[in-house]
Amino acid sequence: MLRVAFTLLFGWAIVATGQAQSPSEVASQLAARISSQLPRRTTVSLEVQTQVAMMPADLSTFRRALEEDLRNMGLPMTATQPETRVRTTISENARGVLLVAEIIAGDQRTVVMQPWVAPPTTDAKPRLRISRKPVWEQPAPVLDLLLLNSDSELLVLSSTNVASFRLDTGKWTQTGLATLSLARPPARDPRGRIESAPGGFRVYLPGTTCSGTLPPMLTVACTPGNEAWPVNPRVASFVARWVTDRNVLESPSFQSAFYAGADGWFSTAEHRIIDRAGNSLSVPDAWGSDFAGVESSCGANPTILASGPGNSPDRDQAQAYEIASGRAATASEPMTLPGSITALWPAEAAGQATLVVRNSKTGNYEASRLGVACSE
């Protein structure tokens, strides 16, 4: 027979007179009450379901925040053979929305309840909007691109070469091609970076660093090794280098290898977004592993463009988020893309990012510039 202990923590005075709580705020309160019922380091699995009408984004934010808060309170999350299962239901009664967390450990069951003064639904438009300007398309992988001389010249970095182009009557005309002398063969999922430098440009690939010049002709000279480079061309303090034979980065700013980094946040091999101290960023389920910081004059908080979760090779998405108090808040509508994102880098121009998508229908790599502007 199950032993049932009910911890009824109603606090209905909050419901009657308190201020509305965001999904993240109420998740933090519920996590504290759940953790108070369990020994520290107990492994936990989490299930969340709702019996009330909710915006998908709010439900996603609540679940992600609850999971992150439980982890930060010393309860590791696992989907296989957990010591304790936590089943959370978002329900409703005469007094309003009620969160019910059922904590199951062996034959013992504890029920914790938390009222939620949910914020009123609004039809407010997102603060930001994303624009996409196609720049270049080709069958071979595009790792990065660089626009020069008021966007009249273009450098395209591929796995084994750099090509130069000049804009002529609205079309790109190739002016040069230089093969890269690689110290290592390209990885299966190659990544690389090209940035402007005094007198020319620099190319950074895992295991190889190159210097190039343009006038009077395109030339590139490469040497083995991984030199450090600014991840964001306009933030000189954040430097990183490639890890040889891998498509991940390392930096003095972070304790381990990472896939992407922006505004003090890094994506780890465990698919977590954490800062230098190991604190987790609470992000919506739509957030993927690749992201880039961009400048925005539309608000005081840092803005990050992030890829989608990568659930389908046929389509992906890019979306803008504003970062505040360890949370990523959706700041734009998602932009649907015709394939998976293979590269997302800060651009040399403020408020822009370089995006590369492999079109699922054509197989070509499409390089674009994403822009961020205030919604009207």
Strand content: over 45%
Tertiary shape: elongated
What's the assembly state of these chains? single chain
**Computed Rg:** 24 Å
Strand runs, count: 28
Report the helical percentage: under 10%
Strand order of the largest sheet: 1-5-4-3-2
- The first-to-last residue Cα distance is 61 Å
Low-confidence stretches: 1-17
Total domain units: 2
How would a textbook summarize the main sheet? Answer: 5 strands, mixed
Number of helices: 3
Q: Let me know the average pLDDT.
A: 88
Tell me about this structure.
The protein is mainly beta and 376 residues long. 10% of the residues lie in helices and 47% in strands. The protein has three helices and 28 strands. The protein has a five-stranded mixed sheet. Strands 21, 22, 23, 24 and 25 form a five-stranded antiparallel sheet that branches. A hairpin with a 2-residue loop joins β4 (96-105) and β5 (108-116). The longest helix has 17 residues, at 56-72. It is elongated.
